[in-house]
Specification:
With about 375 residues, the chain is of the alpha/beta class. About 35% of the residues lie in helices and about 15% in strands. The structure holds manganese (II) ion (MN) (2 copies).
Amino acid sequence: MSDQQPDEQQRDERSREEGSRRERSELASERSERPVASEPPKRSEGAREPTGAAIRVSQPPDARELPRFAGPGTFARLPRLDEVERAAVAVLGVPFDAGTTYRPGARFGPEAIRAGSKLLRPYHLGLEIEPWAALQVADAGDVSANPFDIVEAVGQIQTAATALYDKADRIVTLGGDHTVALPLLRAAHARHGPVALVHFDAHLDTWDTYFGASYTHGTPFRRASEEGLLDRTGCLHAGIRGPLYADSDLAEDTDLGFQVISAPDVEQLGVAGMVERIQQRVGDRPVYVSVDIDVLDPAHAPGTGTPEAGGLSSRELLAALRSFSRLNLIGADIVEVAPAYDHAQITGIAAAHAGYELLSALAARKAAP
Ligand code: MN
Ligand code: MN
């Protein structure tokens, strides 16, 4: 019961209405202002938290006001991590390719994926979610990894990822060659314990050594399994194809805890069948997803270091990644984008969309009741 007189109540209501009208018109005039080069781009602010608690989320600038080819060079033009207090998800660049065995160039992967991400729009059609509004996502910039010393670089990446968990709950990494998955898995293991792993790749990446070196882009998952970072009951590769060194490669891979969905299997099963097998294998375990862009056919991703014919289409990969909204996704990487071999940003755009699917899956999982 209010002890105010009726006319006082009306006055209060009128002034509240005027206030909110003024706020609305101030917002409208702010929106119509054109950003100029000397001003930082305006970010839209959302207050959306599915659980009901109000949070302020800093989002990318509206592309109807600031052209996509202008503005920040961050992933999807999201804010930098140092512009927000903390993030639910940090996007981390790891420009490193000293672990490659064939074509080098994945050190330029993070900038190519960020460039390919400029066209991403805020609403995800399939998952019916606005990932940038549902979660605070921010770009944490690049790790400085020694290009001359792989062992030191692996340590630097692990240290950077571990420190990043103080400011972000989840990390989605842009590589870099596949060597970087090992230190990222070490950091994820320190936080979550042994994780299930879904690995999209043309290659097993469970070989032992190259030229006596243990840390290369062909060996990260053998090391991860040996180190106890993986839950061996929840690991699988998808998209495997091309010749191996010997049939013992597969036997050793099985011993390390992996199942295989080959590229021809994907054709037989279809995307729905692949997704079902992934979900059966992973269950509700914490799962890390590692996407080597060479899982795609060279027609869909020419810009990569060790291309193999007969791969997945980008449509198949994106649909599989979308399904992770139903799993307990704790981290991900997208690696092996080497833009020097790319044409018309085909690979950079495919990788950017893979990132969008993973970030949207994280947002959708959070939004689920
Ligand atoms: Mn590969
Ligand atoms: Mn790989």
